[in-house]
Design a protein that fits this description.
By secondary structure, the chain is mainly α. The protein has a single domain (about 30-330), classed as Ribonucleotide Reductase, subunit A. Helices cover about 75% and strands about 0% of the residues. The chain is built from 14 helices and 2 strands. The protein has helices spanning about 25, 35-45, 55-65, 70-90, 95-100, 105-130, 140-145, 145-165, 170-200, 205-240, 240-270, 280-290, 290-315, 320; strands spanning about 10-15, 15-20. A two-stranded antiparallel ribbon has the order 1-2. Strand 1 and strand 2 (about 15-20) form a beta hairpin. Helix 8 (about 145-165) packs antiparallel against helix 11. The longest helix has about 35 residues, at about 170-200. The two termini are about 25 Å apart.
Amino acid sequence: MGDILNLDYGNIKEEEKILHKKFKSITEGLDWNTFPMRLLELSQKFRWSAYEIDFSKDREDWNKNMKPSDRMQTKLISSLFLAGEECVARDIIPLIYAMEEMGLIEEALYLTHFAQEEANHTVGFRRWFESVGETQGIYEFTLKNEPYRKLFYEIIPTNMKKLYSDPSPENVIRAVTSYMFIVEGILAETGYYAYSKSYEQILPVMPGLYKMIKLIARDESRHISFGAYVTALMISMYGESLFEEFNKYFESLVQEIAFPLINEIRKILLSNSWREEDKGPLFNYLILSDEGFKDIMDFAMNMFQRRYSVIHRAVKMKPEHVRRLHLREMNIVEE
């Protein structure tokens, strides 16, 4: 394989037909050393099924070993995760289309597995809700949180589906920023970190949910890193103006959506007049204590800075060099 990025694998329009130019796998072969193909290899290596998670002990813990505030907190946040996972499973397809239109075949191939993982996460959370017998009222939580509605019901589908009509580099940047950096990064990855720490160190209950969250978090780390990679690739291919576009749009979404969304979760949970005996250790740590909130925010910022350093470097990198970034540069663990 040469080092020159060949994008001559997209489509052409001929009258009312859309024709593939050619197939890369039989023309020059797939480039196994690209970042997306190494992600695809890891995805295959670490694949798992939500149908195989055992939630039987979770139901017992839910009914006998958790305080009301902890149940409420877990139900609310898990409902947001469930709806969010369905959203990203439904809305990732246009990015596959955009990558394929650009002739980025390895990227498109990885995203097909990416989509399957998001569907698996959706199945997992719904199975958990049904296993513990808590399906009533979970829809309401997505409606009560206005920033959540704005992000998942409007911004994500708009940004992603716009790629069908205009898969421009600018639109790819906006789609990836809202999807991978805000939804999967600032919100999901950070939330899964909080969940994982909660059920491992603070209240060791619900082993099924804990196991599933660890598996989902591993998947999401690949997804977010792919978003950072695509952002870096677009910047290296189309110029520094896209770096400025990323910074501006990311900052606006953090300030106008992400932080208000997190604050609204805390506000909803604090609106209940909890008796002291109903407050559990998860609620006390994650909602009431400054230490817990700071821990979560520090984690989010640390993970973002690691990926952002690659994006910043991309301004002076060639596309073929971005495509050969090592997984470690995006904080991906291979074992």
